[in-house]
Amino acid sequence: MSKGILHYEVGEQIDLHLLIKSSTKGIASNGKPFLTLILQDQSGEIEAKLWDANQGDESSYSAQTIVKIMGDIHHYRGRNQLKIRTIRTAQDHENVSVSDFLETAPIQKDVMMEKITQYIFEMKNPNIQRITRHLVKKHQTALLEYPAATKNHHEFVSGLAYHVVSMLDLAKVISRLYPSLDTDLLYSGVILHDLGKVYELSGPVATSYTIEGNLLGHISIMVNEIAKAAEELSIEGEEVTMLQHIVLSHHGKAEWGSPKPPMIKEAEILHYIDNLDAKMNMLDRALERVKPGEFTERIFPLDNRTFYKPSFHK
Amino acid sequence: MSKGILHYEVGEQIDLHLLIKSSTKGIASNGKPFLTLILQDQSGEIEAKLWDANQGDESSYSAQTIVKIMGDIHHYRGRNQLKIRTIRTAQDHENVSVSDFLETAPIQKDVMMEKITQYIFEMKNPNIQRITRHLVKKHQTALLEYPAATKNHHEFVSGLAYHVVSMLDLAKVISRLYPSLDTDLLYSGVILHDLGKVYELSGPVATSYTIEGNLLGHISIMVNEIAKAAEELSIEGEEVTMLQHIVLSHHGKAEWGSPKPPMIKEAEILHYIDNLDAKMNMLDRALERVKPGEFTERIFPLDNRTFYKPSFHK
Amino acid sequence: MSKGILHYEVGEQIDLHLLIKSSTKGIASNGKPFLTLILQDQSGEIEAKLWDANQGDESSYSAQTIVKIMGDIHHYRGRNQLKIRTIRTAQDHENVSVSDFLETAPIQKDVMMEKITQYIFEMKNPNIQRITRHLVKKHQTALLEYPAATKNHHEFVSGLAYHVVSMLDLAKVISRLYPSLDTDLLYSGVILHDLGKVYELSGPVATSYTIEGNLLGHISIMVNEIAKAAEELSIEGEEVTMLQHIVLSHHGKAEWGSPKPPMIKEAEILHYIDNLDAKMNMLDRALERVKPGEFTERIFPLDNRTFYKPSFHK
Amino acid sequence: MSKGILHYEVGEQIDLHLLIKSSTKGIASNGKPFLTLILQDQSGEIEAKLWDANQGDESSYSAQTIVKIMGDIHHYRGRNQLKIRTIRTAQDHENVSVSDFLETAPIQKDVMMEKITQYIFEMKNPNIQRITRHLVKKHQTALLEYPAATKNHHEFVSGLAYHVVSMLDLAKVISRLYPSLDTDLLYSGVILHDLGKVYELSGPVATSYTIEGNLLGHISIMVNEIAKAAEELSIEGEEVTMLQHIVLSHHGKAEWGSPKPPMIKEAEILHYIDNLDAKMNMLDRALERVKPGEFTERIFPLDNRTFYKPSFHK
Amino acid sequence: MSKGILHYEVGEQIDLHLLIKSSTKGIASNGKPFLTLILQDQSGEIEAKLWDANQGDESSYSAQTIVKIMGDIHHYRGRNQLKIRTIRTAQDHENVSVSDFLETAPIQKDVMMEKITQYIFEMKNPNIQRITRHLVKKHQTALLEYPAATKNHHEFVSGLAYHVVSMLDLAKVISRLYPSLDTDLLYSGVILHDLGKVYELSGPVATSYTIEGNLLGHISIMVNEIAKAAEELSIEGEEVTMLQHIVLSHHGKAEWGSPKPPMIKEAEILHYIDNLDAKMNMLDRALERVKPGEFTERIFPLDNRTFYKPSFHK
Amino acid sequence: MSKGILHYEVGEQIDLHLLIKSSTKGIASNGKPFLTLILQDQSGEIEAKLWDANQGDESSYSAQTIVKIMGDIHHYRGRNQLKIRTIRTAQDHENVSVSDFLETAPIQKDVMMEKITQYIFEMKNPNIQRITRHLVKKHQTALLEYPAATKNHHEFVSGLAYHVVSMLDLAKVISRLYPSLDTDLLYSGVILHDLGKVYELSGPVATSYTIEGNLLGHISIMVNEIAKAAEELSIEGEEVTMLQHIVLSHHGKAEWGSPKPPMIKEAEILHYIDNLDAKMNMLDRALERVKPGEFTERIFPLDNRTFYKPSFHK
């Protein structure tokens, strides 16, 4: 396989298929239109300008189109940019498809599904187990395909399931060290906490917020879903309220979107586990892009901090 | 009728039936137990000490008991206190019942119900109308009996319905001045916004929070109820999401308990109307207790401010 | 009458008189100067670029000049832009004047003045009535011409009076529902609360802040004016302090510019009424520009929120 | 002279005249009333309990009464308390008056007045000089007698003038180091900044807030006074606005009570000088009461901090 | 062994040795002194009143004295209280010592030391290993005896070492899941992060803050100690700065006492691990004291929240 | 001497040597590269564009190069810009050196050193004096050359020493007015408070943050340095902790970077003196650039305020 667009250095030439993530028309000061293309493959994305674009270019080179590009990498305002020499749309016989260009979780879907199933299997409380199994089954396809967010962390295909699986593993090792934790509540909370995103977000590609997502949010949507599941399964009892509470409170504070803060121990701990996994994901991705002895770009959801990679790290 | 306990002046004698709101045992420095009684009638409440209380007193004079008391009003630490001379429990033939001693909304329940029904009748959008009617019908008894809160505003029997009716009248006159408002959404929002309190609170007397109330809150509970109503009535369409959003956002900000801020006009306006009616209720009750030229006690939910009654007011 | 500039769609041609709101010189990357013109009529404003501008263009096409323009509407970065074909300054015989191009309150000045006079007439307290009448008379011309702000809400000719009249009507209907309110204080407070803007702002057109406005603010200026009025009318008594307090506290909190928070009931309620009318004005103007099923632009003074227009609204 | 009440140690006997600062009735658990007296002399104050107080005691030993007390100092909850053996009201022939017991500024009134006059004399701008002189003359008696606050700093007789004089001296030495400062604005600002307190506060003894003080505050009152002075002296020009602005902004931030923050250099510097003098006053008074190697009590207006007196200080 | 004082129910009699944690003198309203004793054993503490205390009692029953008490448990203001029948100081032949009454970590000191040594042994970077070993050796005795805080979490004998050991175990399992973490930095950071407490706090019993602790804090003290260790070991290189940074930043934010926020990945993760272990400790201790279906007391360092123990937990 | 670049007016021609402060490559919309040069001399800086730059230009005209430029001053977006006609690098025989173009403190280094030495000489406490002298000697060269910051205030060559000397003079006059201040602590605190900047910053020219500066900060670094100095001088005693505390707390609050707030009087006062001198420096520099009757640009570290220069100032 050829190397990803993110790994080319300034001065190198490329000759690659790339996916147009977005295409924006501008008008240059000479009055002529141009296109700003964000091009991506699985390694990341790069900006390119197409000068003197005509009407045809605008419609040919729109978002979600795969193109074949020859050009050079140069440096502009502290970032790599692609100088296009030639560009054309991909042809059928080239056998490329959109999914080849999307970043995807590093674990296969079926492996992740097996893991989740195993954790559900380990639950001892039948009410918790049945509600969890019911909801996973109901939303299985989306759970395995959706990203966990539109940006910031796990913003890639299958990001949601990947985030869940990482958190389940964390929950397990932490529960062994603090055996007073109720693993049924914790595992179920992990699996359900972000599942409302399958309603909140539009899908795995070119992800945006739905109207329901904007006006209600994944937390409230999921609290509803749990109520509905319990009703359909004729389950009554405090377990339902506890699961709803864990989902409701998992952002930790009212100002972060949880109308109630965690008020049971497993809800509090789930909030830490969620944070830990999300922050590790952000930090690893940011630090991968710098060399030892350098600082990363500012990371907005980490209070806009920049992180240093010690020079004795590799 | 005899005047209420709140209207006696220092030095006056009383000979009244009163309801024990709470009874707390203390131990005096001479080692003997005493009871601190909070006594109430419809006008308000007063503290009294019962010194040298024996085991029997403790069980006789517990919360929710009606007693006959003779005593004197005196002044202690800036507040009136009742010095008990004689106390006994009320007897059957005296024909007094707990509800005689509870503060109650100034409008009759059936009048309030009629008003609410009229507003529902005026709605034009059938989806909004049917959901609203369904939920009012389902919770009618509680809606007409519950308070709107445990303290701060409308914290009396039927306070919830009274708050709703006042807000409906406000919504109507405001909508006439700003005809772009959708009165269907606004009226329905007013009627439903606090209806989750019938789950959140324990009931009209000695009101406390339920476990569901503590861990989920009336907002999330009501969003669920709307979803359930829509499903039972087989209603689909954006109206459901809009009503859920209005309820969800009616506290105005995340830090005040709304996971989403108002994002449709009627939600924003409902937030103001709710505020206006609640604050008027607090202000009127606080200002009633002072004379012109005086300041009220500090009002906690109004940023702990004290308010002045101009000396040219009566 | 021809339709306003705001109502043209992309692709349409225009041939209109427009007022230049602002004109800024830039230098293109080819080294040649160009002008960025903001053009307006009563419907709103649009941006246009005049490329290759010469010295003469710069002086001809300055702010407050009326021009005749032929051109096309196209789309640039999510907003309409005007592509100029021909431009010339308006000529005397064309009978156009600056005021034809300014947004203006939807009610005539004399109608608004009549309304305000009527509310003053209804006041019963002679001290309050005389101070209010005196100050309205003193600043009548400006009150009827000034905007209520430089941006955000009621930022148009006669916006100040229009805001006052809307608030008076709100004050009236609210007072009927809460009869404990002192309408004298409330009406006078509404009329005077923003009147200091006639000193704070520079005038009805191309409005900016005066030095006094910047360093003292309309609140402090108006508190002075009330003191002065009372002295000139030889009025003494608590009414003067109450009116000063209402003006002083009408922003609600210290951090919003009120050195004292509301400490009388009418001051608190005026703060809500002011808010309600200002927010309705912002919301209506933002929602007018979108279609059902769309979100508005972010509205900065509404916590930068975006608002949704339900798809069942027209 | 006998030593002050603050300087007696636990175990010592006292036989002193003291002023009753406040007297509060309580009821002991044996049902008998007692009085809690706060007694003061120029050195400070001490608490005493008068057990088994009768009706006569309550009226004899009220606030602002001078009493002769014999008793013992003992320790109670980390503070000295006075155990009363005998108490009686002072008699005419004993020649004691209330002012003998009040804490007072350490400089004589006429010396302070002379200093202020000298600073006014040094002003070069006639407008600033005339306004300042006019206002000092108008309020001279109160300026020399009032405290600067009811608590926190300079809360003693003549505290206002003392604070002004200290700040003037600070302003002078700072201006010599930064000669770009306009000493006319700075000196006048210092003299006028808190002068509104003569309206805001009730007087030099048992100081409380007036209604005007509560509802308008000393800042807004003084801005008015400057306007009035300028009018009476027929002074026009930017100096008036500048002086008003300095007074208006001297609390530094909106949330600290200044509707506008400092926007001229002298206003900014005055804010620092005010702070520096007030904080020095608080710190010196708190540190006087502890020994080297100890921490002071928490000082509320200094963010509730406690301060350490280094053990190598005396 | 007899059961701990915390496990007696109301109505039970006790006959136990207990340690006086604090003894405060009060004066009853009958004028006689009494002592408020806080008595403790390893299970927790209880309050008792000793009425009519004489001079001798006050000196006999002071803090850190072991007493033999007979009495009854009763209920007062929602908490258990001990009613003393007889009290005397413990006698030599009874073979009780202060340490028998202090809460202590549930793991033996030597086991904890062995664990810490093992983690140091696993470090691969010699600079990090040598600094860590040097500092642990230098402060070994205190590290194994001090509490981790004066209150809130791990506030018991050997609490500091217990907190370190728990965190090391957490660090290990988390590092296995996120192999990009540098375990040398993480283990060393865990071991050193709170070691400055051996200077900040006064010791394992009746713990208070030292002057250095108050004025510099354990974070700054430890940053110094690392510098000193590096100098004594002649170690230069970025590892020193990294370890100092981890200690410096471990409170996470400036307002929580870290002058720099975490800026390397291991510092960020250590902050979470610290939080997780501290919060688990608080939660477990609070939840132990309530029954299923009940709420705990409010926990101040957890934003003053109360936590629910689900009724299906045992 | 020719006048500085900052003092040329629009339309004037220049023919000057200037230092390139920074040089950034851009690509124009015609696809050709250009350079944005920031040029400086001691009076300040100006922007210039070099169009159609070739490879050679990019390397010739890099930061820290001195160039000879002919060109015209014109106006662009509210700021002066330089239109380059001819540009070349300076030649050896022209005898210009980088330091000729850098802004520098207005007092000579040796004069500042003498002043600092004099203040050290006046100290009476030998521990404080020896530590201070030791550290000044150790860092003398850097202290006299470094700026006090990278931006905001005293951001010029020798700015650090100049800030120290101004503060020492302030400390002296303030201590005379408040004789309870310990001048030893205050003078030493002033001299040492920012000395850690010689590690935090990279040097006097093109100043940036070092890694140690970023991860530890000048405060923590200096606290270490004091400990080290005390050890090398074998000084023990509370003075060391006090000096460390003054440095540690000089930012005043945790959120401003001080892990402990000031807890001794001299630390509190030093914080004010630091503020006063820094703010005077910012204000003087901003006000110098505007004419009477104008407002300055917004000053970010002064809460983004703009300041007015009264029209009666010159």
From TrEMBL, chains A, B, C, D, E, F:
Biological process annotations from GO: rRNA 3'-end processing
The protein's Enzyme Commission number: 3.1.-.-
SMART domains associated with the record: HDc
Taxonomic lineage of the native organism: Bacteria, Bacillati, Bacillota, Bacilli, Bacillales
GO-annotated molecular function: 3'-5'-RNA exonuclease activity
Originating species: Metabacillus arenae
Pfam families: HD
Keywords (A to Z) from UniProt: Exonuclease, Hydrolase, Nuclease
Family membership: Belongs to the YhaM family.
Matches recorded under Gene3D superfamilies: Hypothetical protein af1432, Nucleic acid-binding proteins
Protein name: 3'-5' exoribonuclease YhaM
Matches recorded under HAMAP family: 3_5_Exoribonuc_YhaM
Chain's role: Shows a 3'-5' exoribonuclease activity.
Domain HD as annotated: residue spans: 163-279
